Amino acid sequence: MAEVQAVKDPDTIRLVGHLLARRHGQQMADIWNIGINLALRISDLLSIKFSDIEEDRLNLREQKTGKYASIQLNPKALQIIHRIREEHPSHIYLFQSYRNRQAINQAPRPLTRRAVSKAFGSIGEELRLPLGTHSMRKTRGYHLYQSTRDIARVMKMLRHSSEGVTLRYIGITQEEVDKDFKELEL
User: Fold this and answer.
1) What is the CA angle 129-20-118, rounded to 5?
2) Which of 24, 140, 143, 160 is catalytic?
3) I want to staple 73 with a disulfide (CB 3.0 to 4.6 A). Which of 77, 88, 150, 163 is the partner?
4) Using one digit for the tens of pLDDT, what is the confidence trace for 91-110?
């Protein structure tokens, strides 16, 4: 699997969402837009049930780590969630698979990681970006770090236990750290 990166340009973030909607449907664009606002791993994002959302808070246990996450939903995420709920009132999952006609008599299930990865990968190829499902989480971490310069805050949001892991994860290079030292004179 190729290494994916954070999307560092805000215009490109919006372009990815637009292209996902145009090429792969609104559901893929919704995954992108909610994903960059929640910074969850794709497995956790796709497993969100409407019952996990209480007013303006998402509560879930992360599949990979078993850690409990309680996330305050921002207005953009809430707007998308409310629209999806209104459009699909009988759905159990936020990103429920509804295109598979063979699934009519089967239990509801969320979209697959593979479907999302394929859609994101095709947009990444089109834009010549290393884009994948982890790009959402990395993008959120990168932009929080750029706006706060508080690595501890980013670590807490991503639920990481090491600064080094977090810096590598969000794509902060030694070159950028050197630039910060050079440009900030006290």
Assistant:
1) 65
2) 160
3) 77
4) 999 999 976 655 567 889 99
Q: Which of 24, 134, 138, 140 is catalytic?
A: 134
Our answer to whether residue 91 is catalytic in this structure is no
- Residue 123, burial from CB neighbour count under 10 angstroms (0-12, 13-18, 19+): buried
**Structure confidence by residue, pLDDT tens digits, 13-48:** 999 999 999 999 999 999 999 999 999 999 999 999
pLDDT at 176: 74
137 a catalytic residue: yes
Q: Tokens for 77, please give them.
A: 């995420």
Nearest to 76 by CA among 44, 30, 25: 30
Given 137, 138, 140, 143, the catalytic residue: 137
Per the annotation, the verdict on 156 as an active-site residue is no
Known catalytic membership, residue 24: no
Catalytic residue, candidates 24, 41, 138, 143:
41
Tokens of 163: 């600064």
- HSE of 146, CA atoms in CB hemisphere, 13 A: 16
pTM greater than the 0.85 cutoff: yes
Show Cβ contacts of residue 64 under 8 Å, excluding neighbours closer than 6 positions.
41, 43, 44
